[in-house]
Amino acid sequence: MNIKDEHAPYRHEGRTRMSHEHWMRRTALLQAVLAMGLALLLCLSTFSARAQTNPDLKALVDHLKFVIPDETALVDPQQLERFVAQYQKRAAAAGLRDIDRQTAYVLVALYTSGKGVERPEFKKVMEHPPASADEFSDAMIGLPQSVYDSGTPLWDNSAYAKGR
Q1: Which among 91, 112, 142, 144 could disulfide-bond with 105, CB atoms 3.0 to 4.6 Å apart, if both were Cys?
Q2: pLDDT tens digits, residue range 132-148?
Q3: How is residue 143 annotated by DSSP?
Q4: Total Cβ atoms within 10 A of residue 83
């Protein structure tokens, strides 16, 4: 008994043809796959472009180079940017959206190769960070010396320093 599947390809005049419904399903699937692929490419290119041209990151790095020019000159530029990006994200996650408070936060990280921001004293300040830039800066300056002694400055850290 030969029962013809209405969705299977059929032969007509010596050629194999697909039913209209079968063809529409295949093209719909192809369109969906293409759309997902394009969406993925768009996401990846947007992420890559943002990572390379993040204006907030560039502004923060430039500001740090202005504030501590001699020290930042001793750090490999790409390493400096990656380090600053990491701690800028942490600062933003803690609610610090302005460049002045982010600068003070990242300065602690730079002066301790990131170890200072892990100290309990620092974390206590970050539980309720001061809203004004001046108060936040004063809080960072007022941290105990043990916070600043917890790690070496980034420019003295061989993993980040420029070849001298």
Answers
A1: 91
A2: 999 999 999 999 999 99
A3: S
A4: 22
